[in-house]
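Researcher: Here's a chain I'd like modeled. Treat it as a single chain, no partners, no ligands.
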Amino acid sequence: MAIFPSRAVLMADGNIRRRHLRRKILSELGCPVIEAGTCREAVQAVRERRPFLLVLGGRFGDGRPEDICRQIRTDAAAPWILYLSERNDGAAVSAADGYLVEPVKQAELISYAKLIHRLGEGAAVGHPLGSEGRYLRELVEALPMAAYATDAEGRLILYNEAAATLWGRRPRPGADHWCGSLALSLPNGTPLPHAHCPMAVALRELRPVRGQRIVIERPDGGRVAVLPYPTPLRDGSGVLVGALNILLEADGDPIAPSARLWATVAEHAADGIVVTDAEGTIVAANPAFLRITDHPETEVLGQNLLRPQAGLGDLAFFKEAWDGLDGGGTWLGEVWTRTGTGLLSPRWLVINAVKDGSGQVLNYIGTLTDMAPVKQSLERLEYLAHHDPLTGLPNRLLFRARLAHALIQAKRLRQQVAVMFVDLDHFKQINDSLGHAVGDGLLQAVAVRLTEQVREQDTVARYGGDEFVVLLEELAKEAGIANVAEKIAKAMAQPFQAEGHSLNVTASIGIGLYPRDGWTVDALLKSADSAMYRAKADGRNTFRYHDGEVSARVFERKMVEGQLRRAIERDELVLYYQPQVDLAGGRVSGLEALVRWQHPEQGLILPERFLPLATEAGLLEILSDWVLRRACVQARAWLDQGLDFGRIAVNVSGAQLQRGTLARAVRSALGHSGLSPKRLALEIPESQIMAQGEPGLAQLAALADLGVELAIDQFGMRHAALPHLMRLPVSKLKLDPIGDPRSDERDAAQARALIALAHSLRLKVAAVGVEQEGQRHFLAEQRCDSAQGFLFARPLPTQAVAGFLAG
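Model: Modeled as a single isolated chain. Structure tokens:
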């Protein structure tokens, strides 16, 4: 026999086995049972079939249970939602009208469905002695959770055993104002007046009240948190006859840990949090709110924010916010409040309405954030975005903005604008040899001195690296620009103090003028940049104006520099190898690796064209590392083929010694290639090796101990001092090219002396640039150990070396 066959129950669960089992249980009600296995199917079934109850459980592949609740809440005929909870999923529990904790017994599920149907049909509850009252009693007693009913005046009619256990007492039915006889409070301990009791609200406003958490004080001193769900009951004519209240324990349910966590968060939050009822009366406020508004709790609790009393006028900003609440019950914006000292301070206020399932507002929650630290942080970020962190000067971004504004003003007032590029001469050498701390200190000192040379309305900025730019505005005559440039050049030539070092530097200055040299920001900067390179080319420590012809050459040079950077990245560099021959036996004793640039358009470019650019651009160390690694890999490949070539010789940069990176780079290349150190020779120019201090000598000694042969290249350029030479852990000297000894006795005498000196120091000697048989014969007579040059072989591409060695 069908109990209530008119409307259906919707069973939604992502687990098909569990869904079928629940359908079998619910079918005992005698009403249609609809199934849904996805969120989409569930929402569609609610809208098309209008079930009176949605039993929601499990997980779904296309969403979460709370997603279903949120979508169907917009429907005026939304069913009662019963969530079957299997874990601590507070979001879904909060979104539903009620829940049961898994495993759910069959009797619990059936009883709940009967109750919801009865309430949905507007069941009449006449006098407790009537037939409807008897049916209500059966329902209440069958419920597994605490439940009780009152008449329209709030007098207790009946309750079940679970309610008596929850209350810790057995009150007499008929007791007046049962709600008022209970000691109720909010979770924060604030007493809850009888008028705000959920049951009283339901009877007064004739609407269900959904899940406002309250605490019941038991006679034994215990406290139990509950979620009450009171629902008004009417008779067949629609007259209110009472109310039914279901109490769900909150401390032991899946929501409780989350609720306690949020209570703790609110207590210790830095943001102010205030909770009001639907009329704007404050029912709770955390310590941060009291601190921000500078009012004690006794003044705040119970006050109405829409009608602040005397002494609380500074809370009037809430009234403006309330008036601006949107249709969704939300307002946010910046407000200003007074601190305890009377100062105005910015705050960020967010107000959200808390509504029940029917859309009725239960509470408002306001969050008040102190914006002063945020604004200070934003100001700091704004400063860092437009200023150089090392010197405090405007950075490139801010300089360009000021230059753009200056050009607009100059055009309107018909004035000139000058841009100066100020580049420190040889700054890289100071930075490499003395370290970054000294380099940074020098840049800071330069920034101060530059600023002192210009007017207050002018701008000095750090453009990047060791480049500074100066913007001179409101210029009537060009003559004044030269005076400023001379003043800057003289100031830069005075010694600087940085990290205990006295440093002498100079500056190369390039000047671009508006409107003569450019009308736009980029054009003017480009003109000043090219003029600066002209100043460097003319000997440095001077200033130059923009010149179109020179600019073209500078542009070409910078274009080649950019192409060289890309050549390293794109592997356009190749190695050629020139044999070194033992003069006594005629065998190959070594191969010197020589880098070439295989340009995609210009063909093979020799190193004398691009190595100076690499040095100026700071690419020489990267280039040297590339040659070292590539040569070691190729040498190992030749050895694996059974080819013997003695040692592979690689030219290295003195900058690597100064930076302390050479030894690490060599070990890395040897480890990567598997080449023995005894197969590697490093050649360092005489001028660079003689300039090394103790750290550089220590690196050389470590490499010599490893078995790497060290040679001084271009020996004989008169940089070497004998005592210093004797300290170097080198084993070979490479003589600078000599002329024809038969026709130039001076060259012959110098070669004899250098070879004799090397042998007296027990060093081997190698000669380079040998192109004639007479040179070879002379060197052999002087017992020179080895030689290389066109007489023996030109530099060979990699693929030709194997044939040369085999022949």
